[in-house]
Automatic annotation (TrEMBL):
Superkingdom to which the source organism belongs: Bacteria
Keywords, alphabetical: Signal
Name of the protein in its database record: TRAP transporter substrate-binding protein
One Pfam family recorded for the sequence: DctP
InterPro entries according to UniProt: DctP_fam, TRAP_DctP_sf
One annotated GO biological process: transmembrane transport
Length: 344
């Protein structure tokens, strides 16, 4: 019922905007405002100057999903419904409806930008096929928030120190990994995490350096461990009927525009990650807000624990869940990504 009410409210808002439109407009539900700089400095300008950026006789009616009052976890339902023409899908969140889409971001897999780029490229064909067949949408592109790292309130020297600590996580595979370390996973929305850290509901939390910097996590934590667990991906999907209604030349222009946008956002994400990593520990140059967290270097042993988590925790767990909803899930994953990561 809440989802239907949100759809209705968003429909009225967009209908009002269309009444004053000069050109046909695509209805776009973008990333969360709370997601930070990529939404503000890349996504919003791209869609607000859509005709110019794509060379198409189309504009975009763009709103971040949280401004629309729609939950990001409902992204696949929104795009399939036809209410929106393009939707930014946070893969960790929409994987509750489609586990296959978490495949390129399992714990221990895409732990750095270079690996993540190879993984996404190798997985995109299977991702797009599943998106079209099951959810009536076309994959346009992706971007990463960047390697997700550990922030703690109180001293830690390594992953072993998470034993007994309450750690904010964002998906099931990360929760199981924290459990294996002896920690207590706490599932919290990103916007609730700073207050949870401040009040002791969570002792530690995992996110990207830039997101943490924008949300003020370093104000309520003391230590950061720059070891990547996942990279957190966003994918842009277009309603398949809307895509198929475009002439072939317009499809080509739109695909080319998103390819440029994708390359731009991946590069910008890496710049933000590096800058925020410096800012959070008080180093220069820093274009964000400077803090004074204590950096805890990741040891080779801790990095191995994360790498091994792919085959010992996250892949078996995910495969079991995903194969129940899609019988070719894990086999497709291994065919696409096995050669990339050296897994038979």
């Amino acid at each position: 019922m809440k989802l239907k009410l949100a759809f209705a409210a968003a429909t009225l808002a967009l209908a009002a905007a269309h009444a004053h439109a000069d050109n046909p407009k695509l209805r776009v539900a973008g990333s969360l405002v709370s997601g930070g700089m990529i939404q503000q400095h890349k996504e919003q300008p791209f869609f607000e100057n859509f005709a110019k950026n794509t060379g198409l006789p189309l504009d975009a009616e763009y709103k971040p999903v949280d401004v629309l009052g729609v939950k990001d976890a409902d992204g696949l339902r929104i795009i399939k419904s036809g209410l929106f023409d393009i939707v930014a899908l946070r893969l960790a969140q929409v994987s509750r409806d489609e586990p296959f889409f978490l495949g390129p971001d399992l714990v221990g897999l895409s732990t750095d930008y270079d690996t993540a780029r190879k993984v996404v490229d190798a997985y995109s064909e299977a991702f797009d096929k599943r998106l079209q067949e099951r959810h009536g949408a076309k994959l346009l592109g992706t971007y990463p928030f960047g390697p997700q790292v550990l922030f703690c309130k109180g001293a830690v020297t390594g992953l072993a120190d998470l034993k007994g600590k309450k750690v904010r996580v964002s998906d099931l595979s990360l929760a199981k990994f924290i459990e294996k370390l002896g920690g207590i996973p706490v599932t919290l929305a990103f916007g609730e995490t700073q207050q949870a850290l401040e009040r002791g509901v969570a002792d530690c939390a995992i996110t990207g350096p830039s997101s943490a910097n924008s949300a003020g996590w370093p104000e309520v934590t003391t230590h950061v461990m720059p070891i990547g667990f996942q990279i957190h991906l966003v994918a842009y999907a277009m309603n398949l009927k809307k895509w198929q209604a475009l002439p072939a030349d317009q499809q080509a222009k739109l695909a080319a525009a998103f390819k440029r946008y994708e390359a731009d956002t991946w590069a910008y994400s890496r710049e933000l990650w590096n800058d925020a990593s410096r800012c959070n520990v008080g180093q220069q140059p820093c274009n964000g807000k400077r803090y004074a967290l204590k950096e805890v270097p990741a040891t080779a042993a801790d990095r191995k624990v994360v790498r091994d988590a792919l085959t010992s925790v996250s892949l078996p767990l995910w495969a079991e869940i995903c194969d129940k909803s899609f019988d070719k899930c894990s086999a497709t994953w291994k065919q696409a990504l096995g050669p990339v990561i050296g897994l038979k």
